[in-house]
């Protein structure tokens, strides 16, 4: 009995997104042809479409064992491993597929996507452009190239790329989202909003477009527009600059403190400079959750916020609200120091609390949550020690714990920056 009709039907069904029916056809074919590596790879792709990740990986590995010289089998294994966040293995599979089929733009797109997920923008751009050399109109490579150019701050080039891509494929939700991000980077907020809305009309579940819509709405606020521009510049410059800005407040404070000792008249200006620097640094770190909180009342924005964004905004609001209440209580109490210390601690704790949601669900987020929990416990301990201290006794223990709390806050932010780069295997 000729089994090729099963393969042909499976290909049509797979292309239309009817993965369950495609898998059924492929199983019928494999019952009579168990050694067909291509069919096993296509079955793995269908199972991946059904989100059956374990079965998809088993089928993909079986396919590579049966047909190790077929690029499609390694490509499919790379796709499965990429979805499971096992980037090193996925990249190795993508490289093997390219070794076997170096002129296949789809394989270049897979490598570009993996490099993009690893935040290796230059490598992702190189892979996407290599794919476009094989096929100048490849949709996947065009989109990844645009996404990478946005990350590199080259919004003008990204906008040009997506203009031509959309002309060829106007029904691509991802292309509209990328065009929106490119326009947003180029400060064209109105045009960005139009493309984000169109992307969500085509695919209401597109998270990239949802995130862009949120940013475009926020950009309508003049203060947030400054912060957004600053964040895009810092993102382009890289992690070392971000860490430098984080530590900059401390070293600037040391330098200005020494200058104040040498020139006491500079005292008021030193305080103003430190307050402005610190305020902007804190605003940069808390801009997203604070503006997300405001977006919850926006008629369009509240539909674009994700569950994580709402939860982050609520947690940060809780910290800042507690700090505000303690400040009011401090004033009403006539200046009782433990209340002021508690207000400062809760306000500062909002920064690492916000960073919890920058980490991927799984062990990175659990690790960050435990670190923030320990930090909060330390702040409470320092506050209680100061509250229970007898008049005239030594406040050394409370001072020590509070200094450790401040240092811990900085270390937590640095820890979050590292954890945010990890994607737990699924």
Through-space gap between termini: 40 Å
Strand composition percent: under 5%
SSE topology string: HHHHHHHHHHHHHHHHHHHHH
Q: In the residues, how many domains can be counted?
A: 2
- Which structural class should the secondary elements be placed in? mainly alpha
Overall geometry comes to elongated
Average of pLDDT:
82
Number of helices: 21
Task: Tell me what the structure shows.
The protein is mostly helical. It has two domains: 4-166, Tetratricopeptide repeat domain (Serine Threonine Protein Phosphatase 5, Tetratricopeptide repeat, Alpha Horseshoe), CATH 1.25.40; 238-419, no CATH class. 80% of the residues lie in helices and 0% in strands. The protein starts with a helix and ends in a 7-residue tail after the last helix.
Keywords:
Serine Threonine Protein Phosphatase 5, Tetratricopeptide repeat, mainly alpha, elongated, 426 residues, 21 helices
Describe the structure concisely for a colleague.
This protein has 21 helices and no strands.
